[in-house]
Write a structure and sequence with these properties.
Elements (H helix, E strand, L loop, with lengths): L13 H11 L5 H5 L1 E2 L5 E2 L22 E8 L2 H13 L4 E6 L6 H6 L8 E4 L5 H14 L3 E5 L1 H8 L6 H14 L4 E6 L1 H6 L3 H18 L8 E6 L3 H21 L7 E6 L11 H16 L3 E2 L13 H16 L14 H23 L3 H7 L1 H18 L39 H20 L1
Parallel strand pairs: 3-4, 3-10, 4-5, 5-6, 6-7, 7-8, 8-9, 9-10
Antiparallel strand pairs: 1-2
């Protein structure tokens, strides 16, 4: 900010503030009473002052340009096209399609959309060069902005297997880079680490190491790399996390002479969404979307309040989309770029997260690199340790989820037939979503969706 405010008042130094705080504590220890430590080992002070502030970090966040993304699963093509057009007319600004297989008539899907004005994300878990070339041809013809969620390393991290094998997958990526110049084809599924239980430092470091593998193994990366990020509930830390990712990505990219900034698409985490008192999930996703926007996400795809136990439905999608519309058009979150600049607390958090993540990144590279550590199980073990710490905090009431482990309603019932989900323990203190429960939920929801389509 260039305008100096409150110049008519005498400045108060950091030392004066500390003296006054110590007086008000009436003998209580300042560090033990007011300083707390995050799971990442960052000590958070009660106030931050210009006396102790470092130079502002150079993190450019164009908040004014963030897009509202609507997710659509493509099964019946005509219904998906109709739904896409409807959501665009009701506030969505970008579309993300999940494709089952390469048999989808992709040209029909894409050409039915206003591609000149609507960015499109395509999420699929297969590698097929001829299929991707069809997408590239459409992108070239219509001057479309299309982002592909292609991430073989993410496939390995999530499933334990490559699409084919390491060499074949990366040969295909290099072919795509040469033959499909009109697509943003590389993606890093960083949301996987957050949802599995990694802390903020690990998420930033693993994202950076993940990106580094692509820089090392793909000869030509001319277009922006998409980074999918899951945003948690720690409001200011999450703002700082996104800023740290962008900051370190640009430092790393410079080393490879990559001149494009990363493209961040953010979604609320599934880790803190509850089956009991499920309407509170709307409050959680709202603050998480706020963190995503203020942290500089290029696009935000909100999570429906009932996403963890219910198949996609019009009401849940409409509410999740309207949350973003309120933030954008009624709360004016899109009017100021770089909104976190000059906030000493967020600047300090960003710097500390970046420093700790860079140290961890260097350790990963010194011990064989990210893919090696995935294959050896080191990354999984470290995330498992962090997830256990978080679960212990939750079980002990130190990690608060209102309506679940704090002020639970003993008469509360989940909104669906519990008999359909016998694998979920009916215990309000055990509702953090684990990967096993998430997988079984996904299988159940997919079964319901297919049955609905047949009717």
């Amino acid at each position: 900010m260039s305008n100096k405010l409150f110049t008519d008042f005498e400045p108060v130094s950091s030392k004066q503030w500390k003296t006054q705080i110590q007086y008000e504590l009436k003998g209580a220890d300042y560090n033990e009473t007011l300083v707390w430590e995050s799971p990442e080992g960052i000590k958070v002070r009660p106030f931050y002052h210009i006396d102790e502030a470092a130079e502002p970090l150079n993190v450019s966040t164009e908040v004014s340009g963030f897009k509202i993304v609507q997710n659509i699963f493509v099964h019946d093509l005509d219904k998906s096209i109709a739904r896409a057009k409807e959501t665009l007319s009701r506030g969505a600004e970008s579309l993300r399609f999940t494709l089952e297989n390469e048999k989808v008539a992709i040209e029909k899907l894409l050409t039915a959309l206003p591609l000149e004005t609507t960015p499109v994300y395509l999420n699929f878990h297969f590698l097929d060069l001829p299929f991707i070339q069809k997408i590239d041809a459409v992108a070239k013809k219509y001057n479309a902005t299309i982002y592909l969620h292609i991430d073989p390393i993410g496939q390995l991290a999530k499933d334990g297997n490559w699409h084919t094998n390491l060499d074949t997958d990366f040969n295909t990526l290099n072919d795509i880079a040469l033959k499909c110049p009109n697509l943003n084809f590389l993606s890093v599924n960083s949301d996987l680490y957050q949802n599995a239980g990694a802390n903020a430092v690990q998420q930033v470091a693993y994202t950076l190491a993940h990106v580094n593998e692509y820089f090392n193994r793909v000869a030509t990366i001319a277009n922006p790399i998409t980074i999918q990020v899951a945003v948690g509930t720690n409001y200011f830390f999450e703002i700082a996390k996104l800023r740290a990712i962008r900051l370190l990505f640009n430092v790393l990219a410079k080393e490879y002479d990559h001149k494009q900034d990363c493209h961040i698409i953010a979604v609320p985490t599934k880790r803190n969404k509850t089956l009991y008192d499920y309407n509170v999930n709307m409050l959680r996703t709202t603050t998480e979307c706020m963190s995503a926007i203020l942290g500089g996400a290029n696009a935000v795809s909100n999570l429906a309040y009932d996403a963890i136990y219910h198949k996609d439905n019009e009401f849940g999608d409409r509410i999740s989309r309207n949350q973003l519309l309120v933030l954008k058009h009624e709360s004016y979150f899109d009017l100021v770029n770089n909104p976190a600049d000059g906030a000493y607390y967020i600047e300090t958090l960003t710097e500390q997260l970046a420093e700790k993540a860079l140290t961890l990144f260097k350790d990963i590279e010194a011990n064989g690199g990210f893919i090696t550590q995935l294959i050896e199980g080191t990354i999984q073990r470290k995330i498992g340790e962090s997830a256990k710490k978080e679960q212990d905090l939750f079980d002990n009431g130190k990690e608060i989820l209102l309506g679940t482990n704090k002020y639970p309603n003993k008469e509360d019932r989940m909104s669906h037939d519990l008999e359909l989900y016998p694998f979920i323990k009916i215990n309000p203190r055990k509702t953090l979503i684990t990967p096993i429960i998430e997988k079984r939920l996904a299988e159940k929801l997919e079964q319901e969706r297919l049955e609905t389509e047949k009717q």
